[in-house]
């Protein structure tokens, strides 16, 4: 299986067709997240899916990327469950793995997605506006739908540029 | 491409054969990490690969999982580059995505890996013992090699158990 090609060809997609992905495909994306690794297998992630316009518009009011949220057929709102959290750094990394699994499965299914982080600047307002129960901390929002744009190759630092040099 | 099956069949592997993976395979694993998404594309991850016994033994002395580190042919030490960091939570999630990419590519290549987090309890001692340059914070260690154990299906909470309930 060429997962490396899948990983390398994934892009952040911010324009979507109106077509709503089937429940089967949405389920497969959420299912991919579920199998992420986590410290002590604590699975600190929680989520809900936003489809209706009223909730999307509310969410959109808390970010400068409101167009993306309004136009995407689906939004996955991802939270850290503070009750399950035993080590904040490890839990956040586990949620990163959880999100990446979903992004890869979305891409493999022909969907486009965008991991939106800027909205975290207003995480308290989002929690209030969306009536999040206590104990759930907003950590990411992922928009999802069939791509209506083509994004050229992304840019990354060459591999060697990420190697930690030996202390001289 | 059935990436969901790959995601679901991945296990944490803690026993390895002596055979050392080829440079080509190691490169493909590191390359998978490189294409992870990050906020503002800041790519906050840095790493180095440990192969020699002296360094592995030193690293092993900082965790109760010393056997895994000593026996694995390869160890990837992963740090947050504090200079590139612009939002600690997003950066840690990006590194989680980075690690997950590597775990999936390792699994797709027939390798087994284990994401070791307990060693973070001694991150200062590791930094000192391994002579990490300033500005790099240890965030994870991944052991890597050909599996010498079979691990049955992992356990995860059912999907519904991760849905955030609506506030009543």
Search tags:
alpha+beta; NADH Oxidase; 17% strand; 6 helices; 4 strands; 168 residues; 4-stranded antiparallel β-sheet; homodimer
Describe the structure.
Two copies of one chain form a homodimer. By secondary structure, the first copy, chain A, is an alpha+beta fold. Chain A has a single domain (13-149), classed as NADH Oxidase. Chain A has helices spanning 3-9, 23-34, 53-60, 66-71, 88-108, 123-129, and strands spanning 45-50, 74-81, 112-116, 136-145. The first copy, chain A, has a four-stranded antiparallel β-sheet with strand order 1-2-4-3, sandwiched between helices. In chain A, helix 2 runs antiparallel to helix 5 (88-108). The mean pLDDT of chain A is 96. The interface between A and B is large, with 64 and 64 residues.
The overall average pLDDT of chain A, rounded, is: 96
Instruction: Give the termini separation of chain A.
Output: 41 Å
User: DSSP helix count of chain A?
Assistant: 6
- Series of secondary-structure elements of chain A, N-terminal to C-terminal: HHEHHEHEHE
Give me the secondary-structure category of chain A: alpha+beta
Shape of chain A: globular
Cα Rg of chain A: 17 Å
What is the subunit arrangement here?
Answer: homodimer
So, CATH architecture of chain A? 3-Layer(aba) Sandwich
Helix content of chain A: 25-40%
- Give the chain pair forming the largest contact, with residue counts: A-B, 64 and 64 residues
């Amino acid at each position: 299986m060429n997962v490396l090609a899948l990983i390398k060809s994934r892009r952040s997609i911010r324009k979507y067709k109106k077509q709503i992905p089937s429940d089967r495909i949405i389920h497969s994306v959420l299912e991919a997240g579920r199998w992420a690794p986590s410290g002590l297998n604590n699975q600190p992630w929680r989520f809900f899916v936003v489809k209706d316009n009223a909730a999307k518009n509310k969410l959109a009011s808390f970010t400068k990327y409101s167009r993306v949220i309004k136009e995407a057929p689906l939004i996955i709102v991802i939270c850290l469950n503070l009750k399950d959290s035993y080590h904040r750094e490890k839990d956040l990394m586990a949620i990163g793995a959880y999100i990446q699994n979903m992004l890869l499965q979305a891409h493999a299914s022909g969907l486009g997605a965008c991991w939106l982080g800027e909205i975290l600047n207003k995480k308290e307002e989002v929690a209030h506006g969306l009536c999040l129960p206590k104990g759930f901390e907003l950590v990411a929002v992922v928009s999802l739908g069939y791509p209506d744009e083509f994004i050229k190759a992304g840019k990354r630092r060459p591999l060697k540029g990420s190697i930690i040099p030996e202390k001289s």
